[in-house]
Amino acid sequence: MARQGGRSPALSADNHAAQMAEYLTAGRERALSLGNRGPLRLTDDGALHPDILSAYRKQGFYVFEHLIGDSELAELRAGIDEMLERAPVRPGADVDASGRPALGLDISRDSYLWARPLADPVGGTSANGGRHPAKMAEPEPAAGAPDKVIYMMFNLCENMEAGLRVYGHPGLLAIAATINGPDFVPYNDAVFVKQPGLGASVAWHQDGLTHWDSPDWDPEIHGFNFQVQLYDCTPANCLWVVPGSHRLGKLDIRQMVDDNGGSDRLPDAVPLYCDAGGVTLVNRQALHCSFANTSPDLRVSLTFGFHRRASVLGQRGAIVVSSDQVYDETRIFERSSVIQTAIDARARHFPEETPFAYQPFRGLEDQYRWDEAGKIRLHDYSLKDLGI
Fold first, then answer.
1. Can you give the three-state secondary structure of 277-337, one letter per residue?
2. pLDDT digits (tens, 9 = 90+) for 360-374
């Protein structure tokens, strides 16, 4: 396995998969013992069921099984297929593989992030505020692998209408309101793409950067992320989390890896595996990672997060935006309007559902419709992300 600052010499993808096999099996067994997976259940007043909330707060994550229906799942897959087909033919190109203008050229933030196959692009670097201090194993891909593969995609709500609609999912927003209060606010969104035999790793980290030393610190102050899983998530390609780590404050991740003999296979971690249509909920303070995908299975995770309003108001940008941007009421309202637009887009497409009532926009619904004005308003929304 790779140690901090270096790569394992000539570790093939097949050897990596073989080395991981026992760890994956043991991790799955640990995950099954935790009691934090099952269908979404809400109370009569629309709140997350207290048993689920308790399990989430104890472990720092929850796996909601079969939350996204088959028809919506098909629409989401089709949208992702289009995003991948319309991607630049190579990093920095303006056209896709068919010679058409690449998707997202009119958006200020690049819609595609690339990495070397099976690499760890951030571990042991200063990227993302230096929150990935330990390097992951970097197996060698099979002969003929491309030099770069798409690692993440951005601007989900602008590039993909089905993505905007799932952003307004009433069940997911009910979870957000239960955990972060009815005036909850958004964080950002991203699509993680773990191609079979090629997908890069994400080194062990805790997401939060802002509030570790705050006198108001508590285990939920940095919010949470959803991941909507479009394909079956296996222990080999899914996110791994150390249960209960969100309650321990800021961890010395480098020391944890060193104490584990330099191995990235931390002994207490568990995989967030689930079938297609499942949604994982992860506290942003939980220690988590994903390994290089040397498996034959694709993972595509639509990832978006939410915060308490009090955690964000008055803070300066971190992670996804520059630190000179203060999150005032105007900034928070403008970014939160994406939620209300998504609710309307979903209501138009799924008229049989009861739309979520988002408290900050009650009485303003008619001003934030998914119409031509709404599409203009949505442009470059990701420049107003609320990263802490």
1. CCEEEEECCCCEEECCCCCCCCEEEEEEEEECHHHHCCCECCCCCCCCCECCHHHHHHHHH
2. 999 999 999 999 999
Helix (H) or strand (E) holding 61: strand 61-64
Tokens of 189: 């969104």
Nearest CA to 360 out of 317, 308, 322 is that of: 308
Map out the domains of the chain with their CATH numbers.
Answer: 13-313 (2.60.120.620)
- Rounded to whole angstroms, how far apart are CA atoms 106 and 170? 30
Q: Which residue has the tokens 């961890």?
A: 251
Name the token pair of 305: 């997060």
Which residue is listed with tokens 């099954």?
Answer: 32
Cβ-count burial 316-354 (b if 16+ within 10 Å, e if not): ebbbbbeeebebeeebbeebbbbbbbbbbbbbebbeeee
pLDDT digits (tens, 9 = 90+) for 289-314: 999 999 999 999 999 999 999 999 99
pTM over 0.90: yes
